């Protein structure tokens, strides 16, 4: 070979230089190489920019190839001279400075461009990306004078930028569009843990936040969100994602989709032009991480050195967040695919979460938070597509435990050495618990707590302790009803969960599931509605109701019927209506061709057979006539049934109708463990059937008799007599206090009748009748929570724009 | 001949939720799991034809709102102890566009 071929590399980044290195290793003499870079720097390790920003290293330390490398290998470096065009016909490139250079082989390693949100103000001074050393220098300079930075994007890059700016002394707010951080790499649980950790460090995180505009005249001064909030900002870092940089290739007519399309040899549609790195698309995939790029460069090296390699086969990727002290690992594929299973491990006390995703007996994905030591092992199993059949039971405990395996999942606990700590709060080891059980003949969790203190503090090891009890006692042990789990997703019972929600101030479903070590990634149709209710009841002012954890009736605010239509029951306060309301109901029935109009047992009118997409319009018409939701569909206050009372009836002793209206006005809208019905009768003849209601009131000459815990239904139960009161004010206080006691203490889906049978009428009397202070406190707590629940859900949806997606099909397709 | 039709965007479907698409072949339920995987099948429970699109989605299952059958979204069939299959449809995400494959030649009805 007399004359060397000319290889021109566009891009002096990690991919371009690595590709050249791979080629030089294979065949150092075949090509005359020149490298063009738009940045005026030598080749540096871009993924280490975060530690540079965080002050943990310096630019000099992240340089991969200094000037000497280019010289030694006879590489002609054109740093700071951007390639602006490719003339494929003549095999020439031209640069910004006007130069033209010929090539035999061209390698495009143009990388990616930051995605700049197309919002007003995006071009203001002080708005930057986080892609190169210039950006890092700009950030460090800003940190010296400015005081508030906003990072848009809570992905890998955004969080590393946020952490770095925070360490540089800035007050940092992260704005993230999605519900949880790093949602492409982490599931909800791990994202939640990460957010907690960042917030603990003092970084403000706003999830579900959409940027509307960047404010300021010349320099950026703030970020306006679509919900109206404005966050002050002296610096805005756009880290909302990257796009393959394909402009040059596209203009030159090289085939591109999202990236430059390449084959397994990294060759583009032009046989003389190759591409590697973040700018390419291979078998439909684009990559933003470094490991796949090394694989691509190897394939490129083989091809240009004319070595028979296997080519580039695509990559599975793993991610680590480079924030010191935050251990996050994620690998593999979490989107798409069928036949998957999850193995989940949570250790709340140590802040550890692990999730392994399995398909066809092989690991296809892993998320680790808090303890990432086994990440490499899982990633190896994943890449090698090893069958995990033989190690499945112990897999989640890591390589240390695999091999000790047994078929029984309790075996993991059985296999623990006696010295291993079970209860972190009180430092109780396994051996202490098992010997206490056998020596002191302990039979229950309560006894273990008394004797050993295990699980007596935070309670998160309750399940482990129970397992030990079961293992030690064998068949003798049966979990008592107090600790009967809510469902198969957890070992915690209802009461335990409620107590822990308060004790640990857990304020979201993911928080509960993490802290209490749920076994499933997102619960089931039994535990999710229960948790949603418990959180709502515990934190009325703060908790954000999770619509997706509600049964359809409560989500659609109407009752689903057997044919998939809905029924609509407007509230009629105390069973009283008017000509205007009846006319509006009749008009609605006509307008929407509602097939059945029926009077209910609760003194209201039921419109049956309403199509779901008609619901908002039906409600709008009913709202216009002054009517609101009757909550006939909810675990909530239903009706307050009344008789006509002293106003009309010749036997009436009190105005039962007015009292019913008053109580319904005070209590409507509140969510309960189950449905809740009331009635007020004006005399002991009890025409309102108050003695089969959850809270029944019967008027007598000298005041009111109060009855609790009745219901109709499959097993009719008459109420228990609670007490007699003489004034209306007392009656109201008792009513509100009883409801709140029920709300706080009954288990989800437990009506007042079984609740009272379980806890005993004496308990209710002690709480309400014998303890005036508690009664007043309960009533006040109820009224406080009502501040957040007394807005008409129909009006919010009919005209308030809430939840529009719930009511309409996503698409209507018709015959073409 | 079957074809792919864009029926909406990913965020039109709530996470751990579902939306219904009305097609010439009947109603199709498209589910989105908490990790953003999509599944599509006829919106009709094998038990009493309940609209499963209205159920609670958990992991890769949905619980039918009428009588509590649990449908495995990956297998498009009822989980034990119940039995029964549903007609499955192909669905995919392209960018953030949700695309559904149906046999009949169909178009989006005008808004």
Q: What tags apply to this protein structure?
A:
heterodimer, A: alpha/beta, FAD/NAD(P)-binding domain, Enolase-like, domain 1, five-stranded parallel beta sheet, elongated, B: 111 residues, mainly beta, Rieske Iron-sulfur Protein, 12 strands
Task: Describe what this molecule looks like in 3D.
The complex is a heterodimer of chains A (816) and B (111). Chain A is of the alpha/beta class and 816 residues long. Chain A has 6 domains: 5-112 and 244-304, FAD/NAD(P)-binding domain; 116-240, FAD/NAD(P)-binding domain (3-Layer(bba) Sandwich), CATH 3.50.50; 327-405, 2-Layer Sandwich (Enolase-like, domain 1), CATH 3.30.390; 413-546, BFD-like [2Fe-2S]-binding domain (Arc Repressor Mutant, subunit A); 552-624, Sulfite Reductase Hemoprotein,Domain 2 (Sulfite Reductase Hemoprotein, domain 2); 637-786, Sulfite Reductase Hemoprotein, domain 1, CATH 3.30.413. Chain A has a 5-stranded parallel β-sheet, covered by helices on one side. A 5-stranded parallel β-sheet of chain A has the order 11-18-12-13-14, with helices on one face. A 5-stranded antiparallel β-sheet of chain A has the order 23-24-27-26-25. In chain A, a hairpin with a 2-residue loop joins strand 36 (695-700) and strand 37 (703-708). In chain A, helix 21 (656-667) runs parallel beside helix 22 (728-745). Residues 403-409 of chain A have low confidence and may be disordered. With 111 residues, chain B is mostly beta strands. Chain B has one domain (3-102): 3-layer Sandwich (Rieske Iron-sulfur Protein), CATH 2.102.10.10. Chain B has strands at residues 3-9, 17-23, 26-32, 38-42, 56-58, 61-63, 70-72, 77-78, 88-89, 91-94, 97-102, 106-108. In chain B, the strands form 3 sheets. Chain B has a 4-stranded antiparallel β-sheet with strand order 2-3-4-9, with no helix packed on it. A 4-stranded antiparallel β-sheet of chain B has the order 5-6-7-8, with no helix packed on it. The chains are: A alpha/beta (816), B mainly beta (111). Chain A binds chain B through residues 179, 183, 187-188, 334-340, 342, 520-525, 528-529, 547-553, 556, 560, 562, 564, 805, 809-816, and chain B through 5, 7-8, 12-17, 19-24, 27, 30, 34-37, 48, 50-51, 54-61, 63, 65-66, 68, 70, 74-75, 92-93, 98, 100, 102, 104-109. Strand 39 of chain A pairs antiparallel with strand 12 (106-108) of chain B.
